[in-house]
Design a protein that fits this description.
Elements lengths: L10 E4 L24 H10 L3 E7 L10 H17 L6 E5 L3 H4 L10 H10 L7 E4 L2 H4 L1 H5 L2 E4 L7 H10 L1 E2 L3 H11 L2
Parallel strand pairs: 1-2, 1-4, 2-3, 4-5, 5-6
C-alpha cells in the first residue's frame, strides 16, 4: 500500500528532533526548543509552493516516564509558535509515545509506517511521491517500504552507521534545503 490515490499529491515528512529543532533528548521544557538554522525558511518555501509539511516524531520519553503528553504538547506548540513567528507552518504533527521495552511493539514507532499511512489517509497524500527527511536511519527508512524518497540530513549525533546505510539505500544531504532540491531533481 504505497498510495492513497493516483491523483494524490506528495508531502514532505519531517522528523522533529535533530531535523527541525535541536535534539535536546527527551525535551520536556518548551523553553528549550531551538529551531535549527535555515529550517523555518525552507518550511516557508514549501508552504509557499503548496507542499504539505507533516511531522512524524518518535517520543519514547513519554512511555519511559521522562516527559508527559502535556509536556510534549507544550514543546509542539512552542515549535509551531517559533515557526509561525518566521511565517512558516507545519500542516500536521503525529507522534509515537511508545517504547518497545515499556509499551511493546507498535506500528507507529519509526521505522514503522503506521503514522505515515494515517497521515496519508487524512490528507490525501501519495506516499510514493513523498519526501522523508530526518537525522536518523529510522526517519528515512519508511521511504523504502512506502516507495518515496528518503533523505538523511545528518546531525552531530547521527550514528556513522546510519550515514553509511543512507548512502547505500537512500540519499544524504547536508540541509533541508539540499534535501528538497534533491527531491525536486529526482522528479517527485
Amino acid at each position: 500500500m504505497t498510495s492513497v490515490a493516483a491523483s494524490a499529491r506528495g508531502a514532505v515528512f519531517l522528523d522533529r528532533d535533530g531535523t527541525i529543532i535541536e535534539d535536546a533528548h527527551y525535551l520536556a521544557d518548551p523553553d528549550g526548543v531551538r529551531l535549527l538554522p535555515g529550517v523555518a525558511g525552507e518550511i516557508l518555501a514549501l508552504n509557499a509552493r503548496g507542499t504539505l509539511v507533516i511531522v512524524i516524531t518518535n517520543q519514547s520519553g513519554i512511555a519511559q516516564g521522562l516527559l508527559t503528553e502535556a509536556q510534549y504538547e507544550a514543546t509542539r506548540r512552542r515549535t509551531d509558535a517559533l515557526l509561525a513567528a518566521l511565517g512558516a507552518r507545519v500542516d500536521d504533527v503525529y507522534h509515537c509515545p511508545h517504547h518497545p521495552s515499556v509499551s511493546g511493539t507498535c506500528d507507529c514507532r519509526k521505522p514503522g509506517t503506521g503514522l505515515f499511512v494515517r497521515a496519508a489517509a487524512r490528507h490525501g497524500v501519495d506516499l510514493a511521491r513523498s519526501l522523508y527527511v530526518g537525522d536518523k536511519r529510522r526517519d528515512v527508512e519508511p521511504a523504502l517500504e512506502l516507495g518515496g524518497t528518503g533523505i538523511l540530513v545528518p546531525a552531530a549525533d547521527t550514528p556513522p552507521n546510519d550515514i553509511h546505510w543512507a548512502r547505500a539505500h537512500a540519499h544524504v544531504c547536508h540541509s533541508l534545503r539540499e534535501a528538497v532540491a534533491e527531491w525536486d531533481a529526482i522528479g517527485r
